[in-house]
Design brief:
CATH topology: Peroxisomal Thiolase, Chain A, domain 1
Number of domains: 1
Mean pLDDT: 87
Largest sheet: 8 strands, mixed
CATH architecture: 3-Layer(aba) Sandwich
Number of helices: 7
Structural class: alpha+beta
Number of strands: 8
Strand content: 15-25%
Length: 208
């Protein structure tokens, strides 16, 4: 039985040194600003007190910020909001830093501060704690943004009542100096249908 009557209630993009929510700029900075400094600027503008943010890696920080901004538009997340994310590089930045530390000839060390972030789904754990989510979650690794996969997968998850008709989905590619993130919240209300065509257009429009 086709139940796909889901809508996009809010979305957030982080591209270059710009953060946009529902198409409107939340924060912009000079393109030469280091990515880490830019994400710290966004955190300060959020005006929240969450000390764990400073211990997160770049992938977690970007997802945390986008998730926080979407919640301000779509309302508090339901406890069983599904998390369906994908990227290309997994947690490569933290992996490489961890490998460098443990193979140093002078002083090999496995730092918990780095090691804990060598899995991409750690970001899901961080936002689940922050927003008290008890939900289905999955993190896919693709070579590119694939709404052709993400849309039917999210629809099937919600149709099968594995979530409370609510999901947070998207693309979260973070490298050492760049961020290409599109996260969106799916619910039963909103002006835009959750469709492959719309999400392709949204991704391309927000990249311009």
């Amino acid at each position: 039985m086709e139940l796909h009557n889901y809508r996009i209630t809010a979305f957030c993009t982080i591209r270059g040194r710009s953060i946009r929510v529902n198409g409107k700029e939340f924060l912009g900075a000079d393109p030469s600003t280091p990515l880490g400094d830019f994400l710290k600027l966004a955190y300060r503008k959020l005006a929240i007190d969450y000390p764990k943010f400073h211990k997160m890696d770049g992938l977690c920080k970007a997802i945390f910020i986008a998730t926080e901004l979407i919640a301000r538009e779509s309302g508090r997340y339901k406890h069983h909001t599904a998390l369906i994310f994908a990227n290309r590089s997994s947690s490569y930045i933290s992996d490489a830093r961890h490998a460098h530390d443990i193979f140093r000839a002078d002083n090999p060390v496995a730092s918990p501060a780095t090691f804990v972030y060598t899995l991409p789904n750690i970001a899901m754990g961080e936002i689940s704690i922050r927003h008290q989510l008890q939900s289905e979650n999955v993190f896919f690794i693709f070579d590119r943004y694939l709404p052709e996969f993400l849309v039917p997968y999210a629809n099937a998850t919600l149709d099968n009542q594995q979530a409370d008709a609510s999901a947070l989905c998207g693309w979260t590619e973070i490298t050492e100096g760049q961020c290409d993130l599109l996260l969106y919240h799916i619910g039963t209300s909103g002006s835009q249908t959750h469709s492959i065509e719309y999400l392709k257009r949204l991704y391309n429009e927000e990249d311009e």
